[in-house]
Write a structure and sequence with these properties.
The chain is an alpha/beta fold and 367 residues long. It is built from 15 helices and nine strands.
Length: 367
């Protein structure tokens, strides 16, 4: 698509006005976001979001070869939205020893991974030295291995448990070898929704504070948003606006990741309705259009299904996620996708969308 003809290709009048803003590099408004989240004109929406995607990334689509390390499912919070967490006494509760973690990572490294993605429950008996030793042992296995570790919720918890600041916590973990932070725990920032789906989790305001601190220390992070539970379009637009505002101030978000909620084995039953293909497309395209200052938009194929994730490559998505060997969190909530995807599988899906697959890590260092 030629950059100069974008608005002329849009039939829907409201979307054409939004396209003009995008073309002239004017940030769209929250009202614009709400409209893009509700329109049925997804082909016009796709033209706008794909225009931005192409302008930023050309015909490239990124993917990674990594493993998931969910070191424990024991968690103090026991959020209603979570199917993964357990109490310590539950028969399927677990905590991996550092030796077991090293064994799993060595096995994955032997298979050719570039990255380890680490998140887990908030285990009340784990101190900061467990996490510091974990990272150092992982980096010792393969110094060039990229480590994406610990959400803002985990960082806040580690800090409180150890009587230190979030900044001190982050410094210990950065010195140990983490290269970036995942964006989990953001859920949805609206307090009236958050109190229902994750009442014990840190408020959205605190999540943003932790991310600000990480960015100020030079640590790049993801940002996420959980959708299709109890939120409405206003809640989504508000969430996007808060992400964009902090990004204007810090520039530390590298990737935005919408997460489709799965309700199996959770205590959240009254969803708005089952997500449709149009819903998913609107969420991703609207995110790409509104978050003009966040460079990457990621679709987790394990959450969405590989076919929908592939379609989204033409609706703003440039990051097709990764192999995610042994993913547990979304599968505990009923995801029907495999818990691992091969590199050839990911490349084929990207190529069939007419794009060039590029293997990278979470910092988008081309491998």
């Amino acid at each position: 698509m030629k950059y100069y003809d974008l608005p002329d290709t849009i039939i829907n009048k409201k979307l054409r006005k939004i396209a003009v803003k995008v073309f002239e590099e004017i940030p769209v408004s929250k009202a614009d976001a709400i409209y893009t989240l509700s329109t049925n004109d997804i082909l016009d929406l796709g033209k706008i979001s794909n225009f931005i995607r192409t302008k930023l990334h050309g015909d490239t689509a990124y993917y990674g070869v990594n493993m998931n390390l969910n070191f424990t499912n024991i968690c103090e919070l026991r959020c209603p939205l979570c199917a993964f967490s357990r109490d310590k006494g539950d028969k399927d509760a677990y905590l991996l020893s550092l030796d077991e973690i090293e064994k799993r990572v060595r096995k994955a490294v032997a298979s050719g991974i570039d990255e380890v993605h680490i998140v887990g429950g908030l285990h009340p008996e784990l101190k900061i030295d467990y996490f510091e030793k974990m990272i150092r042992r992982i980096k010792k296995i393969k110094p060039g291995l990229f480590v994406v570790a610990f959400t803002a919720v985990e960082i806040d918890y580690f800090a409180k448990k150890n009587g230190i600041s979030a900044k001190e916590t982050l410094k210990i973990l950065i010195d140990a070898g983490i290269g970036a932070m995942p964006g989990g725990g953001a859920e949805i920032f609206s307090p009236h929704i958050r109190i229902i789906i994750a009442p014990a989790k840190i408020p959205g305001k605190r999540w943003l504070q932790i991310m600000r601190t990480a960015h100020e220390m030079g640590l790049k992070t993801n940002a996420t948003m959980l959708y299709n539970h109890k939120e409405n379009t206003g809640d989504i637009a508000d969430h996007l606006a808060k992400i964009r505002k902090l990004q204007d101030e810090t520039g530390g978000f590298k990737t935005f990741v919408p997460l489709l909620f799965h309700d199996t084995n959770t205590r959240i039953r009254a969803k708005r309705r089952t997500s449709t293909g149009y819903d998913d497309i609107r969420i991703y395209a609207a995110s790409r259009i509104f978050l003009h200052n966040v460079p990457h938009l990621k679709a987790l194929w394990m959450y969405l299904g590989d076919k929908m994730a592939q379609v989204l490559l033409r609706f703003g998505v440039d990051d097709f996620a990764a192999t995610y060997y042994n993913e547990k969190v979304v599968h505990a909530a009923g995801a029907k996708t495999p818990d691992y995807g091969s590199e050839s599988f990911l490349k084929r899906l990207i190529e069939n969308a007419g794009l060039k697959p590029v293997r990278t890590t979470a910092n988008y260092w081309i491998q």
